[in-house]
């Protein structure tokens, strides 16, 4: 068993392609849910037949942000809350790349919340994984946007007086076209969801419940969970916006009452991604922008000259 298989067994040999040659030991604490995300992402990349040079993984800052140190692909460990704008720029410059952005609940729903909303609204073709452990892990357990009301921490010693943010509902109203919730305690479901999210052409958001046994002592908060697609109790059409919205609200209410629901909440395969919209109006390069540097025949358009021509 490698250092990366703390949760679940290694089943697919090809996953090892995504383990860095110079294998850095993860500095995550024993039992941390982040191992489950790494395991699921490696499994998904292998199942999709991707190779490390076809992928870009952009991460934010936090324990979650360390993901790309342990995942072999192109990587960009960005600044706090800023993985999405970097990921978007890379996707626009090189449309053939499979782009995954990842970060924590503080990173993505707090300081980076604005980027989350607008990346979803614009339907950029990428997968965004948010490690939701309901606290700031790296900085030692402060209250985060998803901490439940009443949650005690060093920053809220008498218990948080704030209602938590509702990530699934926010994602839907912002415009994400694939929305799912999974949990590190089930890397198999998580892997399947990541596969679907990467295959989806548009902005895919995965709210990934990850336990933090060090700073959020209720580390088994995500066990047991229910898969809404496998349960007869939840019959809804996840291509219908209104039904998806109701299912999300029920899920978000249930979480803090101790019932953990996971699954695919919304899938809109009809809506064109941002890249597709840009291609339609002739504003999207077919080849990676970087190739222009090697193309002797390429006629550079100077934006300053274009500006002058337009206003002469
Ligand atoms: C601009 C900026 N503000 C604050 C910090 C300090 N900081 C580092 S990680 C972090 C929060 C991490 O929480 P989360 O995003 O939930 O990730 P986790 O560690 O829980 O995976 C903060 C506030 C920072 N690095 N940069
Ligand atoms: S502090 Fe929490 S989130 Fe960070 S590595 Fe340890 S268990 Fe994981
Ligand atoms: Mg966190």
From TrEMBL:
One of its GO terms (biological process) is cellular respiration. Coiled coil: none annotated. Keywords: Oxidoreductase. Residues 1-23, 140-166 are annotated as: Disordered. InterPro entries: 2-oxoacid:Fd_oxidoreductase, OFOB, THDP-binding, TPP_enzyme_TPP-bd. Its cofactor is [4Fe-4S] cluster. GO terms for molecular function: oxidoreductase activity, acting on the aldehyde or oxo group of donors, iron-sulfur protein as acceptor; thiamine pyrophosphate binding. It comes from the Archaea. SUPFAM superfamilies: Thiamin diphosphate-binding fold (THDP-binding). PANTHER family: 2-OXOGLUTARATE OXIDOREDUCTASE SUBUNIT KORB, 2-OXOGLUTARATE OXIDOREDUCTASE SUBUNIT KORB-RELATED. This is 2-ketoglutarate ferredoxin oxidoreductase subunit beta. It comes from Salinigranum rubrum.
